[in-house]
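Internal ticket - ligand job 410, nicotinamide-adenine-dinucleotide:
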Amino acid sequence: MRGSQSTLAERLRFKLHRAELKATAMGLKLMPLRESRLHEGLDATHSLAREIGHYGVNKVLIVTTAGVVKRQQLDTLIAALAQNQVGFAIYSGITPDPSVSVVKEGLQAQQQHQCDAVVAFGGGSAIDASKAIVVAATNDKPVEKLVGIRKGRNKPLPLFCVPTTAGTGSEVTSVAVISDDVTHTKRFIIDSRTIAKGVALDPALSQSLPPSITAETGMDALTHAIEAYLSQLASPQTDALALEAIELIFTHLPEVYRNGGNLESRAAMARASLIAGKAFRKAMLGYVHAISHQLGACYGLPHGFANAILLPRIVAFSQDAVQDKLAQLAIETGLGEASLGRSDLAGLTLDRLERLNTELGIPDNVESLKEQDIPSIASAAYKEALSVHAGPKYMGRKDIQALLRGLLPQ
Ligand code: NAD
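stdout (structure tokens):
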């Protein structure tokens, strides 16, 4: 493994992981995933409420944040639910990186109001908490015991999503990321039955995002697309989705950062985030996510912000293993002509990632990172990478430590 500092034991573990990925690939090929009904445009929430009505739901729990309520972003949904004879209750206690106790509070609201479906209205945090709530609602198990793959025996309640950020793609993925209350470690509840039945993408909802959150969440979507594209589990289908998302993000993310009111670009980003979600739910992710989850847990960094800082560095580390794909990405997204050499083209992709961070005001180091935390962060990232991810070039603990040292504040 060129350029890697991995030990013999780690190299054996990588071999085993490669074999595990082969089995995963077979499973993913056979597993049909739900295609959510998509409602797009300024009328999307209205048309989602109609779908909920047709579905025979009596009362939904709207899971959201205090900010959404304050900005009066629920008004259209609430009016449309009434028109379709669907009752509602609201749980607005969602906080970023929702914890187990936040999920439990939401579950209590669902039980108290006897809701038979959930509408997640917010960013990835509201959507992920809602996924955990719909599984917990039908399974007599503490939320902590639902961590893992399909731990609920019974079918979850139906979930509908109205994303207000354009980043996670959580509305179409099988994963809910929930934080431990004490350690802040991120845990995964994985169940393909939590993929939303219906999704409303209304570009007006993300207009209220400040530039910094627009940038961070957009870079999260780009990270999903790029990690899926470079994954060992990538296929022609996931490549097509990933490339479509990358092109949309390269074009529209700098615009929505500068001009948050541009509805056309907001719509394009919402679509890109969803498409990237579809790519990574099949191809999985890589070391950017494995490391960024630990930085998030340790220092409370926003997920997309940590991803953005790591993305160019991990792609650079993996460059020799995926040069042809990086070159193809440059051609497909118009960064360079096919007549250029593969290595020059791959370099153009890397340049674009670095320039994008600069354009979006994202730094190239982590202000809060401390040298003494690096070994434990690297160890946790190493473990996560080999449990749920499929990055193209393996990183040993020392490789991850070296990469993290490059992020220490100057
Ligand atoms: P978020 O939902 O945590 O929201 C970030 C901040 O933006 C919050 O303060 C929120 O209140 C605010 N906000 C949201 N929409 C707004 C709007 N329209 N206007 C103004 N402010 C708004 O951020 P996120 O990046 O969407 O989600 C991050 C979470 O999603 C993390 O916990 C991450 O681990 C998880 N995640 C899940 C998946 C998945 O597939 N399930 C994928 C990636 C990330």
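Auto-summary: The chain is about 55% helix and 10% strand. The beta strands are 37-40, 59-63, 87-91, 117-122, 148-149, 159-163, 175-179, 186-190, 198-201.
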